[in-house]
Structures are given as structure tokens and as C-alpha cells.
Amino acid sequence: MPSKSTKAQASTLGASKTATREESPVPEANESKVAIDTNTLQAFSDIVKEVIKEENDSLREEIIRAVPPINTTLEEYGGKLRDHDQGLTELDTRLVAMEANYQELKDRYEKLQRKTDDLENRARRYNLRVLGVPEGLEQGNPTRFMAALLQEVFGGGLEKPPTLDRAHRAPAPKPPQGGRPRPFIVCFHYYQEKELIQSLAREKSRLAFRDGQLLIFPDFSADLTRRRTAFNEVKEILRKQEGVRYGLLYPARMRISFRGETKVFNSPEDVKGFIDSRFGKDK
To answer: Does a structural domain hold residue 17?
Structure first.
């Protein structure tokens, strides 16, 4: 058991601690700390404001110094843009005039080309092309040879050899042995004799000559030949249709007669449209 003196000491110690806690100045310390923190924050705030003000002033001065050069540069570019705009306007005007001139020149060129082609074909109207004559048979005198050949091929259709101004092979390299012979271009002195030869050639289904076959065509220009050849596809279609009569007209038009109706077409596309409307698309 603890002695009475020990209990008295413990009691006295406890009372002393209680008195110490009651007499400790805690509120005064807290208030002092808050006051210090407030002063520190105020000072820090003032420093930050001063730094921000200095930075703003410095930035404002830099902006003020930078604006005039930028304005000068913008004015320069504005002037250049105005010059470019004026230049583009002038170019546009010149381009419009150039397009008009081009279209006029194009129309004139096409007109002159048609005239030139027409003149060329009129100059060839006395000519015929004869295909299938073996090389070397003319023996240096093609004009006399072709006159005799035509009389031989058409027999009784010609009372005498036709009068030829000239005859010659097409201007092309001589083919190798066994190759396709070059065609003959024959120029008749009389247009009527040339037409008679064409008529006799159409009447005969086959022109036999020395184990071969001759083909006779008008001597058209390359451009006109191309335009007339473009009708070959529709000619094949019309050939299969019953009751249809057709033929090519000069220079490159097709005449079709069907069920008492005759029409003339200027292009293969127009003929295809007629075929589709009359016979349907399944020919």
C-alpha cells in the first residue's frame, strides 16, 4: 500500500500541473502567429503586384516598339496585294480577249481545213485507186499498163482502153517479196470514163485478174477516207436488216431508204439513233 506521504506528493504534483495548464497563454501566441502570417502575405502580395506591374510596363513598351514596324510591313504587303490584284485583273482581261481570238482562229482554221480538204478531193475526182495489182507487172510504163489492164478486166464494157493522163504506184516503200502490193493511183483524162469504170466495178461482184482479185475505190484524201470509214460499223448493222437500202453520199453522209421513207444522216451517231428507233437496240 502506498504511504500517506507518497499520496500527498502525487496530489501536489497533479494540482501543480492543473495550475500550469490553466495559467498557459495559448490565445496570445495564436494571435501573434496570425498577425505574422497576415503581414507576410501582405508583403508577398505587394511584391507580386510590383513584379506584375513591372512586367506589364515592360511588355507594353515592347508592344509599342513592335507595332510601327508591323504597320509598315502591313502597308507594304497591302500595296503589293493591290498591285497583284491589278495585275490579275489585267491578265483576266487579256485572257478573255485571247480566248475570243483563239475561238475565232479555231473557227477560221476549221473552215480553211474543210476548204483545203474539199479542194484536195476535187483535184482527185478524176482519180481511182486500184488494189491487188502484183508488183513489177507495169515494166516501167504504168500508164499504158493500167489502160490495158482495165480493158482486160472489164471486157466488153469498154470498147477501147480508157484515156489516162497518168498512173503510178502509191508513194510508199516497195514491199518485200510476197508482201501486199502497193495500190495504183490512176488519173483519167475524161471524167465520164472514170465514172464508167466505177459503175462497171459496182456491177461486177468480183474483179478477177491473174489468179487474184482487184478492188477499185475512189481516190479520196486521208481525212475524208477516215470520215467515210467511220460509217463501216453502221453499214454492217444495216446490211442485216431486211428492206433497208443505204449508201454513202459525197463527201461523208449516209442515205437510208426504209418503207418508202428516205433520210440523210451526217454522222454515224445519227445513223445509230435511227437504227435504235426503228429496229431497237438488239440488232
So the answer is: no
* Residue from 174, 132, 165 nearest 149 by CA: 132
Would you give the DSSP letter of residue 162?
A: -
User: Structurally, how many domains does the chain consist of?
Assistant: 3
Question: Could you count the other beta carbons within 10 Å of the beta carbon of residue 118?
Answer: 13
pLDDT tens for each residue of 61-84: 888 888 888 888 888 888 888 888
Length of the chain: 283
- Categorise residue 129: left if φ over 0, alpha if ψ from -120 to 50, beta otherwise: beta
Structure letter (DSSP) for residue 214: E
Give the separation between CA 183 and CA 195, rounded to whole angstroms. Answer: 19
Whether the Cβ atoms of residue 103 and residue 110 lie closer than 8 Å to each other: no
- Tell me: do 144 and 113 sit in the same domain: no
What angle (nearest 5°) sits at the alpha carbon of residue 143, between those of residues 148 and 196? 60
Give 17-54 pLDDT, tens digit per residue. 444 444 444 455 566 666 667 888 888 888 888 889 88
Q: What share of the chain is helix, strand, coil (3-state, %, to 5)?
A: 60, 15, 25
Q: Which residues form the domain of 244?
A: 225-279
Q: Do 174 and 213 fall into the same domain?
A: yes
Residue 264 counted as domain residue? yes
CA atoms within a 13 Å half-sphere pointing along the CA-CB vector of 142: 17
Greatest CA separation found in the chain?
A: 180
